[in-house]
Design goal:
With 485 residues, this protein is of the alpha/beta class. The chain has a domain at 9-105 and 172-202 and 238-382 and 426-484: TIM Barrel (Alpha-Beta Barrel). It is 30% helix and 11% strand. The chain has 15 helices and 13 strands. It has an eight-stranded parallel β-sheet with strand order 9-8-7-3-2-1-13-12. A three-stranded antiparallel β-sheet has the order 4-6-5, with no helix packed on it. It has a two-stranded antiparallel ribbon with strand order 10-11. The longest helix has 17 residues, at 172-188. The mean pLDDT is 96. Bound molecules: alpha-D-glucopyranose and calcium ion (CA). Calcium ion binds next to loops.
Length: 485
């Protein structure tokens, strides 16, 4: 471990692992903890110092782990608690820290908390949101934000999928229960958490209707509900008070890495969250770089470089003003690959050049940097050519709408390849000369994209001019040159 634990995370390079597709240790086709542990030397060689694992808990996988059925153990397909302890030991031995994803806004509808809460007379009924009459909110993943429950004979609130009922953060028992989860993992030795969907925990008091969006012209008929209701649940006043109460019970200190997923929280309001010495989180993962894609006059994708630097500078300044540094990322498990979103990923030379340029634009910034598995290979989005590659339920509403608009299967799959989350969740290509790219010795749970094979880890490791080596060089330079930081 590093000599002093104090604020060790200020310049951390965090590598995001979507475990199901990283490395399969036992040949069942699903990436797992032993598979990751076996690859730690590759990550150590790359130079990353922290791993963020997206959820590893038992889950019915309506949203691949983000619907948690049991917070206090490991999903059987990922391994055992002993496998987790082994990962932690082996990572720490290499000076690599490990943070977990804590899904605190909602549970699975199959979590015992939800099952116990369902009867109207249950003492824990108020752990979730129930209504006889739902309001008019739309869910973030499409459709109404309320689902009927047969036992309760009531509707319950779900901002994401119906399988992800929202916990009622106004209830102190909920905050205490989640704090106990955090303590459990801190006691096991984890180095912090990424807080999923942090900015939607607090809902506007009384859950008021959102109302129809403004019409382009009075002549146009108002659409039917449900309506987008972001202003009723995103970054609401009082969110920090609820979260601070959870934190106080969680055992977390300022010397753990805590990353808050922070859709909708502007830099001007970030100070209170991140200020030294007593901020609520180490850094916020804002969404502002999600919207800087644009097109060249010839139609090719590119980025608006002026907006890119404006956003980065604004977050850097707001962090500096309160004695800390920001967090910056270009990719994660929810976003298209940068070379696909922002460059011509069909031309190998252009793609490689773009991947290197984006790497420099990212890693030469001060503060916490997050990478997503495969970014260091310059992977483009996987091409989805068959429905067996489509798993993400968050796409279902869009697919239905495209169908209704008369799109062909090919058109829908092409659009999902460009924008869908399945396109960034295919198996990691380790070695072009091994079956299934060396990801598994069995049959992968979803196919690896053959276009990823020429970009496999081993082949890039053997090529000093590769994107992989460039990432390694940049990470090493960050360490060597304090001025960069
Ligand atoms: C976050 C996660 C995303 C998940 C959603 C619901 O945005 O990053 O993958 O689907 O929360 O938990
Ligand atoms: Ca496995």
């Amino acid at each position: 471990m590093h000599a002093s634990p104090t604020r060790w995370w200020r310049e951390a390079v965090v590598y995001t692992v979507w475990l199901r597709s990283f490395a399969d240790g036992n040949g069942d086709g699903i990436g797992d903890l032993p598979g990751l542990t076996a690859r730690l030397d590759a990550l150590s060689w790359l130079g990353v110092d922290t791993l963020w694992l997206t959820p590893i808990h038992p889950s019915p996988n309506a949203d691949f782990g983000y619907d948690v059925r049991d917070y206090l153990t490991v999903a059987p397909e990922f391994g055992t608690l002993a496998d987790f302890d082994a990962l932690l030991t082996e990572a720490h031995r290499r000076g690599i820290r490990v943070v977990l994803d804590l899904v605190i806004n909602h549970t699975s509808c199959h979590h015992p908390w939800f099952e116990a809460a369902a009867p109207r007379t249950s003492p824990s009924h108020d752990w979730y949101y129930w209504r006889d009459q739902p309001n008019d909110w739309a869910a973030i993943f499409g459709g109404p934000a309320w689902a009927w429950h047969e036992t309760a004979k009531q509707y319950y609130l779900h901002l994401f999928l119906p399988e992800q009922p929202d916990l009622n953060w106004e209830n102190p028992a909920v905050r205490a229960a989640l704090a106990e989860v955090a303590r459990f993992w801190l006691d096991r030795g984890v180095d912090g958490f990424r807080f999923d969907a942090l900015t939607v925990l607090k809902k506007a008091p009384g859950l008021p209707d959102a109302g129809p969006p403004a019409q382009p012209s009075p002549a146009t008929a108002a659409p039917a509900p449900p309506y987008p209701a972001w202003d009723r649940f995103l970054a609401q006043p009082g969110l920090d008070v609820l979260f601070a109460d959870f934190l106080a019970q969680s055992g977390l200190t300022r010397d753990h890495l805590t990353l808050g997923e922070a859709n909708g929280l502007p830099a001007e309001r970030a100070d209170a969250w991140i200020a030294e010495p007593n901020g609520l989180v180490s850094a916020l993962l804002h969404f502002e770089l999600w919207h800087i894609a644009t097109r060249r006059p010839n139609g090719a994708p590119t980025i608006d470089t002026r907006r890119f630097s404006e956003v980065c500078v604004r977050w850097w300044q707001s962090a500096r003003a309160v004695g800390t540094l920001p967090a910056t990322y270009l990719e994660n498990h929810d976003l298209p690959r940068v070379v696909t979103a922002w460059a011509d990923d069909g031309d190998p030379v252009a793609r490689r050049r773009a991947a290197k340029a984006f790497a420099a634009a990212l890693l030469l910034q001060a503060g916490i940097i997050l990478l997503y598995q495969g970014q260091e290979l310059g992977l483009p989005n996987a091409r989805l050519t068959s429905w067996v590659q489509v798993h993400d339920r968050a796409s279902a509403a869009s697919i239905a709408a495209w169908r209704a608009a008369g799109w062909s299967d090919e058109q829908i799959l092409a659009e999902l390849s460009r924008t869908g989350r399945d396109a960034v969740r295919t198996p990691y290509p380790w070695n072009a000369h091994l079956p299934h790219g060396g990801f598994t010795r069995g049959t992968p749970w979803t196919p690896l994209d053959p276009n990823h094979l020429p970009l496999a880890w081993q082949q890039q490791y053997d090529d000093p001019e590769s994107v992989l080596h460039w990432y390694r060089t940049l990470i090493a330079r960050r360490r060597q040159r304090a001025a960069l930081l």
